[in-house]
Write a structure and sequence with these properties.
CATH class: Mainly Alpha
Low-confidence stretches: none
Strand content: under 5%
Distance between the termini: 35 Å
Largest sheet: none
CATH topology: Growth Hormone, Chain: A
Shape: globular
Order of helices and strands: HHHHHHHHH
Radius of gyration: 20 Å
CATH architecture: Up-down Bundle
């Protein structure tokens, strides 16, 4: 699911990562609305509010909106930067390591919300900022892995693309086009799983509060587990797992020796 990047990926891998990350984004966004009364998976509304607060002369709210916008941007920058820097260790290492950063942020929000959150304004502003960072991070992560084919934290662009794809599909000549069929399948998958994620996130928050972010963190761990499982299966069928582990160990030692020189 995260072992390959760009042109090396197949349609099934893109569907899988799209479904997982869209569910996560939907869960986070609805939980954020219920907990903090604001969105955390996109920044379109925040940009509008930022403009409004400047016009009204509300300095504090203007600064908060700016920080929230910057948080999403910083998350996107960080994910791409980490993947690029870690890629020399291999795609799987780079992508899976980058996912763990988002998992840690989600766990931090869950733990703080469960144990310490007093519903003060400053706490709310910081937690929303962290979630915006995580969602910008996630969107950049999936876009980088899939060469911008998959973006799942907001649906405005998706619905635009979906409308265009449906317009093309309305012409019978295009209905047998495999590329268009795959595009529609991916777009409907993202929209549908985001909606399901919203339902799951809303229900879990209503029942268990900030525990919902533990579930999102677990969900984001699944692509790594899935790829490890697939890799182990493959190695067991083709030469054995121990041979693969020894090969990885040799590669790591060679890399360390090169760095030492």
């Amino acid at each position: 699911m995260v072992r390959r990047e760009g042109s090396k990926r197949d349609h099934r891998s893109n569907l899988q990562i799209a479904a997982v990350t869209a569910i996560a984004a939907g869960m986070v966004n609805v939980a954020s609305i219920m907990a903090f009364f604001t969105f955390s998976s996109n920044v379109t509304g925040h940009m509008a509010i930022f403009s409004e607060e400047i016009i009204r002369g509300n300095l504090h709210q203007s600064i908060v909106m700016f920080i929230w916008l910057f948080s999403f941007l910083a998350g996107a920058f960080t994910a791409h930067f980490l993947i690029t820097k870690l890629k020399k260790e291999g795609n799987f290492y780079a992508n899976s390591s980058t996912i763990f950063v988002e998992i840690l942020i989600l766990l931090a929000v869950a733990i703080y919300g469960r144990l310490f959150y007093l519903e003060s304004l400053i706490e709310t502003e910081v937690l929303v900022g962290l979630l915006l960072f995580a969602m910008g991070y996630q969107n950049s992560l999936t876009a980088t892995i899939t060469n911008s084919v998959v973006k799942t934290t907001h649906l405005t662009g998706l619905f635009t693309d979906l409308g265009m794809s449906l317009s093309m599909w309305s012409d019978k000549i295009n209905r047998s086009n495999p590329v268009l069929r795959q595009k529609l399948q991916l777009q409907f998958t993202i929209a549908g799983t985001y909606f399901l994620g919203g339902l799951f996130g809303g229900y879990i928050y209503a029942v268990a509060g900030f525990t919902v972010f533990f579930f999102v963190a677990l969900l984001m761990f699944m692509p790594v587990v899935y790829d490890v499982f697939v890799l182990i299966q493959f190695k067991l069928r083709h030469g054995g797992l121990m041979a693969y582990i020894l090969q990885l160990s040799r590669k790591r030692k060679l890399a360390e020796n090169r760095q030492a020189q």
